[in-house]
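Troubleshooting: if your tokenizer reports a length mismatch, compare your output against this known-good record of 270 residues.
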Amino acid sequence: MSSKKEFISFPPGYLGSRPEKFPLIVNDDRFFAVNKPAGLACFQHEWTLGKPDLSMALRRELLNEKPQLKALGIEGLFRAYNLDAELSGALLFAKNEESETLIKNAVGSSQVVFRFHLLVRAETEDREIACDLPLAKHFNNKRMFVSHRTGKKCETRFRFLRSFGQYQLWEAETTSLRAHQVRVHAAERGLVIVGEDLYADGDEIYLSRIKRDYMRGRGREKPLYSSLCVHLVELEFRLSEVELSPILAPLPSRFETLLKRLDEYRGGRG
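Known-good structure output:
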């Protein structure tokens, strides 16, 4: 796959009140991929009602026969996998049914590796952790829970990357990608994700919390990054029948800024 300086844009009303523009991190004759921001649903289902929906917006533009999509050779909307609305990162689409079948079969047979970067407060001294607890959807709430009776098998491997004082950057790797999988497995293994409020108490980070003698201005202080600090940075393909290059998705700019501030002030006073 080769990346090109191309993009997909949406007018106001499709994904919110403002126009939106997504640079393509991959575009070839079979696939395209965007770097999805946090808070944007991949498709509409019971857990994402009311959230902007990228698949629905794309479908509307296809029905409108938007020239931009025609020029990209997109025949229809073929989503390869689901990335939780709360997470940011690489979101891959196939351009036709044949390519969709290829990727879905690869995902289903554990031939696609999903790698995330997550910022945490670690309640463990270990530097490599694995979690294979099976997960099931909660009966009444929009969350997952560990169930050895009804849960689906999945495994996440965590690896320490670097320290920022009281905070740490970790990598999470999986080939299963269940809903909320990284979040639940992280919490179960003592990795409290910054911004997590469903499975752990992962407070957001404010500049006043990490910078000594910080003089807060007027008004309410905003967090340095207001989304869950989990980003899908890479897809690696381990296919036998075809060779596909890895897909890389840079961290959101505000996530990068948060890491720079933590590095500058070494994670704060603790």
